[in-house]
Structures are given as C-alpha cells and as structure tokens.
Amino acid sequence: MSSSAHRDTGHDHATSGPGPDRLWSVQDHLDDVLSTVRPLDPIELNLLDAQGCVLVDDVTVPLSLPPFDNSSMDGYAVRVTDVAGASEEFPAVLEVVGDVAAGQTDPVAVGPGQAARIMTGAPLPPGAEAVVPVEWTDGGLGEGPVAGMRARSLAPEGAEGHVHVYRPAEERAHVRARGSDVRSGDRALTAGTVLGPPQIGLLAAIGRGTVRVRPRPRVVVLSTGSELVQPDEQLASGQIYDSNSFALTAAARDAGAIAYRVGAVSDDAETLRSTIEDQLVRADLMVTTGGVSVGAYDVVKEALAHVGDEDEPGGGVDFRKLAMQPGKPQGFGSIGPDHTPLLALPGNPVSSYVSFELFVRPAIRTLMGLPDVHRPTVTASLAADKALTSPKGRRQFLRGSHADGSVAPVGGSGSHLVAALAHANALIVVPEDTESVEPGTQVEVVLLG
C-alpha cells in the first residue's frame, strides 16, 4: 500500500501541496481513505454465518414458492358445486374421505359429494377447487358450527363420516397458488443486499444452504493513554475511565463489522508497536484512538510515524492536520505484511466519535462492498436561541437533536462532552467558509441513527 502522504487527489486544500504543513480538507482525507481501502474478497458461507454480510451475486429463484397449491386455512378441501347455496338452515353434507396434512406426498382425491379434512400449508388434493374454513362447518361432529379444528388424536371422527358445511365457497378460496410468492427464474435478491433475517429466510426457502458474500470486516479498536482505566476498576488521582474503545467498538459493530476491543495501552511506543503487531492477525482494519497530536506523550504518532511496510517502499502511517473541528489531528496508512489499513483518531471522546463517523464507518462499509457507504444527510432548520459560531477555514461538526425538519444543538462545542454526544442523533455541519449561522437557517445534517 503506497503512502497516503504522497497522493494528491486534485482537490483544493486549505494549504496546498504535500508535506507536513499541508492542511487537509475533510473531503480529501476521506477520498484518500476510500481510494486505498478495497472491498474484501468474496467467500462462500453457510446461511447463518452470512448474516450481516453483503451479497456478491444476484440470486435467482430455482423453484416457485410455494411450490404447489396449498391451503391457507385449517378446514375442508371441497368442490365448489358441492357447497353452492350452503347455509346453516340447509347445509351441504359431504363425505369425508381422509386427512391431508402438511408434508403429505400422496393426498387423497376429492370426488363429487366428497371433502378432505385439510391443514394449513397442506397441498390442495386432486379434484378439490377450494377450502372452506373449519369454522364454516360442524367439524364432523354434527353439533353445529365449531370454533376450530380438533387434534387428530382427539377427533376420531375427523377423517371419517360426514361434515356439514354452512357457507358456500368461491373457486380457489383460501388456496395459496403455486408461485404466488416468487416464481422460478425470478430474481430473489440483488447483489449488494445486506443479508438480514428475512433475506436468510428467503434463501433457505428456495433451497440455498450457502451463499457467496463479502465477509464482515474484522476491526480491532485500540485506545492509548497511561491515564486510562478499565470501567469497574478504582480510579486513582489523574485517571479516567476508557470510554473511547467501548464507543468505537460498538460503533464498528453498528456499522456491520466484527469488532474486537483491546484494552488501553500505556504511553510507551514499543509496547504499542508490539500490541498492534500481535493484533494484525485478526484485523482487516485497525483503529487507534489517542496519541496523534503534538504532545510529548502522543505515543501513536511516535510509534507509527516512521514504520513502513518492508516489502513496499512508502508504506506506513501518515499523520496530518485536517481543516475540521473537532478532529483536527488524524492519521492514516497501512501497517504489517498484509498492508492492513490503519486509522489513527484523536483521543478526545467527541473528536474520536465524530472522526469515526466521517472516516472509519465509510471505510468499514467499503470493506463490506456496500454501494452506499455514507450516513444519510438532510437539510433542516436550525433551532437555537442564538447564532452558532464556527472557526473560519474549519468545517465544524456540532452534536444535534434532529426531528420533524429541524435540528437543535446539544451541549457545547467542547470535544470532551461525552454526555451531550449520548443525547445527539445527528451532526450539524457548518461549512469552512461560514463563521456564523443564524437561527432558522437551513443547515446540512448528518443523521446518526
């Protein structure tokens, strides 16, 4: 994988030209990520293993569903002429010639003046033209209309004797026609479909035990910082709980990935390099959070800035500044023998999560082979008590609550405000050339839920 620092996508930048002083636009950084990440190779998986994966090929129906005419009710299979004019005062009395159960391969034939007791899903027997629900009959008991079908073991009269039918039935009444769901040769599913429970059910229904998909990408999330403590442990002075790795692992799973969370790594470059190398065996994408700025303990930058792929000159991770708020410091590149993509996100919780939504989620969706990798965006009216301010030259992403065509800011602009993020369902986008947005203005909104 060639170094992303040496590519120029041809877009305008706040600071033009490659190099450490270049200020990348949000779009250019995203383009750089998506031009490097490639969809995973297809594999054949058993149906349940394919849940959440993206279908590679169109699936054609090999047999019609249902494959035969069958009953949609428990009742009696009859000929239409035999029940014409039937009423409670003058019921049609038919000879019951047998039972037809679901899965039965040799159903009895129904002749003139006859009926067969039939169960839901059972094939319509030869000679029958309709099904009368059992509630329209005496159930073979001779005691007036019944409420339902009795179990065969409790109803020795079921397949014998006579049944009184109190209502007429039109031809094909309560009959599911062969191919009424899908017909042989129809396209059941289109390439690019994410396989959820209904799609897997359809594949099973048409006899497919395996399916060719792009697998769900494996994403390893790793946070850095000696101050980070696992939740449920005791905090010492100067320590905080590690929330980023939990939020990003959950976000990766929400995006469709199989995500693994690695406990926080201390601020030691060698330890970090070793941990990342150990994790590469199970990663299609690595995500780190923290340690990408210009501080003395920014360990990710120290550990990875000069690490390249030995067999491909120019590989490694490029650390850059983006014209955005929050999330100015970012890192992107590849690492390890398989050139595994790595995105290094800032450590402030909001910066980290916003960066994930803008860059990591689209990368995951690209690995999955999805045609649309981005969150939906809409325009909405800004509901605020006063104008929103934004730094010149930066694209700002503010947490917001969106509903019914309007969006209201949630919390302040601080990149540490985790509680506000938890109550937001959208990001309000303020463009680079806008320094103030008045209430009532139409703004772009990225929908998060």
UniProtKB/TrEMBL annotation:
Which residue windows does the record flag with biased composition (Basic and acidic residues)?
1-14
Record-level GO cellular component terms: cytosol
Task: Please name the GO terms of the biological process aspect recorded for this protein, alphabetically.
Answer: Mo-molybdopterin cofactor biosynthetic process
Q: Which InterPro entries match?
A: MoaB/Mog-like_dom_sf (IPR036425), MoaB/Mog_dom (IPR001453), MoeA-like (IPR038987), MoeA_C_domain_IV (IPR005111), MoeA_C_domain_IV_sf (IPR036688), MoeA_linker/N (IPR005110), MoeA_linker/N_sf (IPR036135)
Under which EC number(s) is this enzyme classified?
A: 2.10.1.1
Give me the reactions it catalyses: adenylyl-molybdopterin + molybdate = Mo-molybdopterin + AMP + H(+)
Ranges in a coiled coil: none
Residues in MoaB/Mog domain copies: 220-366
Q: What class of enzyme is it?
A: transferase
**Cofactor(s) the record lists:** Mg(2+)
Molecular function GO labels = metal ion binding; molybdopterin molybdotransferase activity
Mind telling me which SMART domains this protein's record contains? MoCF_biosynth
Which Pfam family would be a valid example here? Answer: MoCF_biosynth
Region Disordered: which residues?
Answer: 1-23
Alphabetic keyword roster: Magnesium, Metal-binding, Molybdenum, Molybdenum cofactor biosynthesis, Transferase
Its pathway? Cofactor biosynthesis; molybdopterin biosynthesis
Q: Which family does it belong to?
A: Belongs to the MoeA family.
Q: What does this protein do?
A: Catalyzes the insertion of molybdate into adenylated molybdopterin with the concomitant release of AMP.
The protein depicted here goes by the name Molybdopterin molybdenumtransferase
